Amino acid sequence: MTNYRPTWAEISLEALTQNVKAFKDYIDKECQLMGVVKADAYGHGLVPCAESMVKAGANRLGVAIMEEAIELRKAGLEVPILVFGYTPKEVVHEAVDYDLTLTVFTEEIIEDVIHAAEEKQKQVNIHIKVDSGMHRIGLKKGGDILQILEKNSSPYVHVEGIFTHFSDADDEDPAYTEQQFHHFLSVVEEVENVHGKIPITHCCNSAATIAFPPMHMDMVRVGVSLYGLYPGEHMKKLISLQQVMSLKTKPIMIKTVYPGEPISYGRSYEPEQPIEVATVPIGYGDGLPRSLSNQGHVVINGQRSPIVGKVCMDQTMIDVSSVVKSSRNAVYTFFGDPKEEHISLQEVADQLQTIHYEITCQISQRVPRKYV
Ligand SMILES: *Cc1c(COP(=O)(O)O)cnc(C)c1O
């Protein structure tokens, strides 16, 4: 995308590559690494991130919806791609055309897959989703899975995998994750006893991959931590990761604002003494959270300066009084690599009482991603 204004999200493909390698080292040689790139690679850019991950050693890719998988195929990515979520009946034949692996969690889906595969006389892989305690999608019981598989079988459709998803693997207390894991193990055992061995059993997201190595099984599905973000503080000592995204801008105007001159919509901030205010061309229309109004900071040449007044749709004001001399041509960073003294995404997420996933996903398409 053309970039006329000085606002951009810097994506370090080197950091991403390092993170993939860190996970490859962390898991066993026989265990596969699936790079999860749903939601535009958590806002980092689907295709460039997927390409870097595969180049760095990711064996497979995971997405939430078929549109994302098709975009990857169109970009030339040939590794197996698992679609985690719901695939509507009308597009299952397209999934078969594009060699996508679909998740089966109802009888209807497997019927649709068999229908499309037989019509095209093409081999299709499916993965079965087990609900072990998140209560989102998935089949709870081994018996239910066996019943569906017995009723619906085809030489064209191969049960390549069976998986589940944890709801609380970032909790320091392992009890619920262990309970989910044992539920999953018992379902897998029950299904395999009748159906035969399923080649790829998998259950770990980033948090479980880091915190519970005995649960890795045949493959791990790592999303957020490939982007250098830790699901929990207690995991920092276990693996070393680098934050991939930094959000940057430059000032378009700097002026003095005096007492009695309120700043931005709603007049929520008024200086007590004259201050130097820089206006930057980024706002909530770019995904800069409006809740950072009068709360967030940017880092300018290693020093923090506060956001003053409400974040607008397209612009935001910063009190640069403490760095006024060096602020004119400087880069202002909302969040970046904490090793370079930037504010980490974790800190911003904590401040906003949300999770870092949400912040990177919300950086809008209006903000160009610059790959470095
Ligand atoms: C999003 C997702 C993942 C990755 O989760 P992270 O916490 O980002 O590592 C793995 N598996 C499934 C099914 C998902 O939906």
Task: Report what the structure shows.
The modification N6-(pyridoxal phosphate)lysine is found at residue 38. The protein is α/β, with parallel strands linked by helices and 372 residues long. 30% of the residues lie in helices and 22% in strands. The chain has an eight-stranded parallel β-barrel with strand order 2-3-4-5-6-7-8-9, surrounded by five helices. Helix 9 (206-211) links the parallel strand 8 (200-204) and strand 9. The longest helix is centred in the middle third of the chain and has 21 residues, at 175-195. The protein starts with 6 loop residues before the first strand and ends with a strand. Pyridoxal-5'-phosphate binds at residues 36, 38, 84, 165, 205-207, 221-225, 231.
What's the layout of helices and strands?
Layout: E1 7-11, H1 13-26, E2 32-36, H2 38-42, H3 46-56, E3 60-63, H4 66-74, E4 81-83, H5 92-97, E5 101-104, H6 107-120, E6 124-130, H7 142-151, E7 157-164, H8 175-195, E8 200-204, H9 206-211, E9 219-222, E10 245-249, E11 253-257, E12 275-280, E13 297-300, E14 303-306, E15 316-319, E16 332-335, H10 345-351, H11 356-362, E17 369-371
Parallel strand pairs: 1-17, 2-3, 2-9, 3-4, 4-5, 5-6, 6-7, 7-8, 8-9
Antiparallel strand pairs: 1-10, 10-16, 11-12, 12-15, 13-14, 13-16
Helix pairs in contact: 1-3, 7-8, 10-11
The structure holds pyridoxal-5'-phosphate.
Pyridoxal-5'-phosphate binds at residues 36, 38, 84, 165, 205-207, 221-225, 231.
